[in-house]
Amino acid sequence: MKRARSPWGYLALILFAALSALVFDRFRARPQFEPDLPVEFHLTNPVRRAPEVMERAELLFRRNCLPCHGKAGHGDGPASVSLNPKPRDLRSPDLQNQTDAFLFYRLTEGKMRTAMPSFGTSLNPQDRWALVHLVRKIGEEARKDETN
Ligand code: HEC
Predict the structure, then answer these.
(1) Could you state, in order of their start, the residue ranges of all structural domains in the chain?
(2) Atom 32, ligand 1: which residue's CA is nearest?
(3) In a mutational test of the pocket of ligand 1, which residue from 62, 64, 68 has the highest number of ligand atoms less than 8 Å from its CB?
(4) Is 42 helix (H, G, I), strand (E, B) or coil?
(5) Which atom, in ligand 1's list, is nearest to the CA of 102?
(6) The pLDDT value given to residue 2
(7) For residue 5, is pLDDT > 90?
(8) pTM of the prediction?
(9) Which helix (H) or strand (E) holds 131?
(10) N or C, which end of the chain has less CB nearby within 10 Å?
């Protein structure tokens, strides 16, 4: 006849399960995307940051973003005076800490309850990704100035 498992056996099993769950949780990769980013925007930038892409992005920026965000992206364009909230300073660290995917999402959908427009219909995806590269470049240049 088989002996019934002792209560200590069950306890050991439960302890083992709890411990492995803890260890697993520790080593699980942190989520790659912002928690509120819709899944269809869980993307990486498919456009290569080539010189001609950046040139195009500068042109698009002057046409579409400069009036609010200013020539250098500091949030001080001529239209910014009348806006509340003000356009973002594109150098700001919390903005630069967001993923490319999140910036692309903002360019595509705009930002509710602010003047930030959606460019999902007026600019094609390549152009929006090129602008994401330009926003990154603005951040990089600001960090370079800081360390100099
Ligand atoms: C009509 C004015 C206006 C125009 C044009 C505009 N923006 Fe904005 N933008 C804003 C405002 C206002 C905000 C929100 C500020 C806030 O939430 O504090 C914003 C926010 C942003 C943000 C931050 C989004 C976030 O999560 O807070 C990015 C990035 C951005 N704009 C990039 C751009 C780019 C690139 C263009 C051009 C393709 C552009 N904007 C055109 C007004 C504008």
Answers:
(1) 39-147
(2) 107
(3) 68
(4) coil
(5) 26
(6) 64
(7) no
(8) 0.84
(9) helix 125-147
(10) N
